[in-house]
Amino acid sequence: MRTAVIERNTYETQIKMELNIDGRGKNDISTGIGFFDHMLTHISKHGFMDLNVIAKGDIEVDCHHTVEDVGIVFGKALQKALGDKKGIRRYGFFVLPMDEALILCSLDISGRPYLNFDAQFNTDRCGDMDMEMVEEFFRAVCTNCGMNLHIKMLSGKNSHHIAEGIFKAFGKALDMAVSFDERIEGVLSTKGMLEV
User: What average pLDDT does the structure give for the chain?
Assistant: First the structure.
């Protein structure tokens, strides 16, 4: 089982996360930001990863520190759970429809962090989450996991649908990338390693 438990405590946030990559999509998530909890649930459910998150942050200021720091911890948990990355497909992609929204997500667990985020929201907030934090969450994940991630909104109007499509597509693409292919000997790289 590829698992990780990560705790991160700062003056702004206190986070504990348990991740099982080879799970069933079970989750127990509490960040104090309802809409963000809903989005993280989609990664777990559609990525078939068990995910438990308890986060306490300075949400009386705004949601920024909590969302970004959960992204940091999720990236670190992924990196730890993946270990040496031997046998994984490495690449994952998905095009997901969510009502009028259509989202493309493509990623490479290469060890080289990069985010290309091309989506626009028509509202500043959904529930208690600032929409600009969607990009910041994924930037934190990429940086701390060593992931190349491209997210592109092909169409969409409703901010909730766009955000939900992004998180679901990411979960589906991630599930593909971390799955095993028995034909792969070692890691899928001509370098013989998947890290910087």
Answer: 95
